[in-house]
Amino acid sequence: MALTLVPGFMLDRDLWTDVAPALQRFGPLSHADPARATTIAEMARDTLDAAPARFALIGFSMGGYVAREMARIAPQRVSRLVLIATSSRSDSELQERRRAVALGANPAVFRGVSRRSIAQSLAPEHEGDSTLISRIHDMSLRLGGETFRRQAMFRREGDLDQLGSIRCPTLVVAGDRDRLRSVEESVEMAQAIPGARLEILPTGHMIPLEAPDLLARLLVDFLMEAA
């Protein structure tokens, strides 16, 4: 088995650092490139071009939209699907505001995603964790202003009516303290995907960073069951 990992908005492969050791037993890990694409569909195609012939696919937040698009384009290549802290709904007010900010921003003076925004993505008990906030902020700095502008312009199209076409084993993971994506959004995804399993963890939006051990155990159990 091989695994392909797709990060969320202005996050890079460090998102997966704490869960990667548990996943390596299942085969090589490949990572989507978050810095090139201009649309969800383009990122899906680029990631498929670089992925193994057949693989398990894990998408986080924005990466969940990319992962589902990949599963639609090449269903025969995706053996298993994991959707973490994501949604099947169209753009929220947050994404619309982010798009408006990006249009007026100068990429040359980008200083990373604001620490205030990052804190809001964490569970209340983690929003004062300066080490965790800095780690997330550093990912956005590495990706830079041009990537911020491109990703902010991504349009997330609602695809609830298309989820019934997903036929591979699917795990949906939500955080019960997620202030960006509600548990209800995960419930509706899991109910729309045939046979999907739903797991809710006691954490905020940044599940791979806030609860890596819990997530790793879930992923290992799911990948072993589906094997």
From TrEMBL:
InterPro entries: AB_hydrolase_1, AB_hydrolase_fold, AB_hydrolase_sf. Residues 53-212 form the AB hydrolase-1 domain. One of its GO terms (molecular function) is hydrolase activity. The keyword Hydrolase applies. Pfam families: Abhydrolase_1 (PF00561). The keyword Disulfide bond does not apply. It comes from the Bacteria. Keywords: Hydrolase. This is Alpha/beta fold hydrolase. It comes from Paracoccus broussonetiae subsp. drimophilus. The lineage of its organism: Bacteria, Pseudomonadati, Pseudomonadota, Alphaproteobacteria, Rhodobacterales.
